[in-house]
Amino acid sequence: MRKGSPLYLSLTLAIVLMTINIALMVVWIILAASQSYWGTLTIGTIAFSLVLIGLSIYLFLTIKERQLSRRQINFVDSVTHELKSPIASLRLYLETLQIRSLEPTKRAEFYHVMDVELKRLDDMINQLLQVARLDAIGKNSEAEDVCLKTLLENCAKSTSDLHRLVHEEVFDIQVEPYIVVAPQIVLDMIFRNLLDNAIKYGGSVPKVWIRTSIERSRRVEIYISDNGAGVPPEIRSNIFKLFFRGEDELQRTTKGTGVGLYVAHTLTQKLRGKVTVDERANGKGSTFKIELPCKETTS
């Protein structure tokens, strides 16, 4: 935060006013108590306290506004970077196809890469659109019986393809065929975002483990673990906020826009579920736990 900026001046003013308010309140209490003006003491103390509370709320909201503003700036930077990368790649391949005569195998390879880059662009745009229409997602879709095992396997396969990875080499899926009653489009968005996050923040050679268990309260727990650096405890409560990223956008090494976990968290809450993050129990990395109401187990 730069000195001389409007936010810096606002914070300084709030702190100065709070200090003056506290000093005046102490003086008021001493003077009123020494003269036994108990009614005046009570009224004055309440008035000073209300002013102090108001200034504290103002300071809190100012800091929150600063944090949101910074996340929004980082979001714009990351989206700009994420858009430029596939567009530059597509332009390069198109120009090569236009100026050179390539062998059929090489041409087919170029077309495949261009198709992947287009899917990457489409996936990112869809993710951004999800944020704008979170309240409407699933409203026009009827809840249905969804087998978690099938859903997770399909999401893992599509996420692997998006990152140009071999599905069997990345994912270790050992889940039971529990049934969740919900719009499939909502469940699909939740797990695609979580699996995409697990790959992006996994190790240099990503590995993702998916497990399930069920509680007595008929709630299924899905555990998604990765082999990445993990999520520091001090930011675990923040990673599900909109636009939040755990690193400075100018120094970032991981692709992303900071909306995937927000989408997953918000949609999980819509299903009366919960998503949390912790360190991986058996090694380096993170484990995301998703709790959802469960109907039964398939045969």
The second-level CATH architecture of the largest domain is 2-Layer Sandwich
The low-confidence runs, each spanning 5 or more residues with pLDDT under 50, are: 248-252
Secondary structure tally: strands: 8
State the separation between the terminal residues, measured CA to CA.
Answer: 59 Å
Under the CATH scheme, which class of the largest domain? Alpha Beta
Question: Helix and strand string, N-terminal first?
Answer: HHHEHHEEHEEHEEE
Radius of gyration, in Å, reads 26 Å
Amount of beta strand: 5-15%
CATH level-four homologous superfamily name of the largest domain: Histidine kinase-like ATPase, C-terminal domain
**Share of residues in helices:** 55-70%
- The CATH topology name of the largest domain reads Heat Shock Protein 90
In spatial order, strands of the major sheet run: 2-4-5-7-6
Q: What structural category arises from helix and sheet content?
A: alpha+beta
Gross morphology: elongated
Total number of helices: 7
Number of domains: 3
Characterize the largest beta sheet: strand count, sense, and whether it forms a barrel. Answer: 5 strands, mixed
Nearest-integer average pLDDT: 81
